[in-house]
Amino acid sequence: MNRILTILGAGESGVGAALLGKAQGYDVFVSDFGIIAEDFKNELRSAGIEFEENGHSEARILKSNLVVKSPGIPDTAPIVQALRNSGNLIISEIEFAGKFTKAKLIGITGTNGKTTTTMLTYHILKGAGYNVGMAGNVGKSFARQVLTENYDWYVLELSSFQLDDTYELKLEIGVLLNITPDHLDRYDYDFKKYIASKMRIFHLVHLGCHAVYWQDDAHIGEGIASATSGLNVRPFSLSGDAAEITHIQFDRLFYVPFDFEISAPRADISIKGLHNVQNAMAAGNAALLAGVNKEDLLKGLKTFKNAEHRLELVKRLEEVDYINDSKATNLDSVKYALDAFDTPIVWIAGGIDKGNNYSLVEAIVSEKVKALICLGKDNTKLVTSFENIVPTVKSTDDLIKAIRWAKEIAKPGDTVLLSPACSSFDLFDNYEDRGNKFKEAVLNL
User: Fold this and answer.
1) Does the annotation flag 351 for ligand binding?
2) Is the separation of the CB atoms in 57 and 28 below 8 Å?
3) 194 and 143, same structural domain?
4) Distance separating alpha carbons of residues 347 and 261, to the nearest angstrom
5) pLDDT tens digits for 299-317?
6) 143 burial class (0-12, 13-18, 19+ CB within 10 angstroms)?
7) According to the annotation, is 113 in a ligand binding site?
8) pTM for this one?
9) Which residue range(s) make up the domain with 101?
10) Does 42 carry a binding-site annotation?
11) 272 and 354, same domain (yes or no)
């Protein structure tokens, strides 16, 4: 009898899972509530995989032996509720792909810094000669790569949504960077549920293998002992007196305790800002635990180039730097971005608010921001939060107008920073689309 596999959501992860499922002998059906991109449709047709769009055929889907759900689909979706009520097994694409690879896995999660740390870890391993892939919440889907590649290692960026539907994946190294309020609309506005979702990463680590985490984070500390029971813990800290763990002192990073102590000058790390010191600590620990030597680690830290849309210098015009930080979709990311600059800032922010409490950044905004340009369909909350704190506050739903205003306001030595604190879906397809359109408009100034 055929094993019936349904894929909910036909994005990169869904189509990758469909192709892998077909190759593994499943009877595959793909269902998307929205419109499927034409290139994905063509891939499914070429593989002989049946699909539907603009809705779900519930009766057919309920007959599935296994369902792989896109991380973007919430548990409140009617089709997901119907599947759960019927007892159908729902897993992530990460969980599904993990069943068909013998590669060693490094999993990285956290509210902020996941992409940078994942890419940096991958960069260090690849530079050290490892046969390594990178997947998860970045790049090509894990399932697609398991189907088409033959890597010995994978570095996986794992969102809380992916972790929620992952149960039996086996990680050699699990990394937890930080936990701050985000995506609370998906967790019944209960921060404890979101914390529990992030901590799940350590339940996926092999017994006796490695847990890397930021010791300074109080939200991690609350449950870390039980979450890492049976694991080899490797905490890191920004404290200069944490002599027994990876820490920073006298502007140098110390990776301890390993068989040797590694001291890396902070100035040698290619990515700037204190938050990136944390990312370098986490990535360095993961790489060392994977067997990378001191020389390759230091080389990787020096030569790494960060991802697009993360504090990306787009252009310097009339002595004003224009920075694309479109991936900053929460307040913690924005705080890191504002902290990275010592110049007066013209801040462009806005989009779909995710329950932000803007009082958390009032102090740093008051100190550093000379003007706020709100970019979104509904800017009421941003305007009311900062109109008595920032000298100049403007509001628009037009990106070109926002950038022209920024150019008029900014003086030589200032920084124009797109760091939205919100999701992008009111005006753009996603944060990449927002960042790319910002860059295009700035380059046309």
Assistant:
1) no
2) no
3) yes
4) 41
5) 999 999 877 888 888 999 9
6) buried
7) yes
8) 0.77
9) 95-303
10) no
11) no
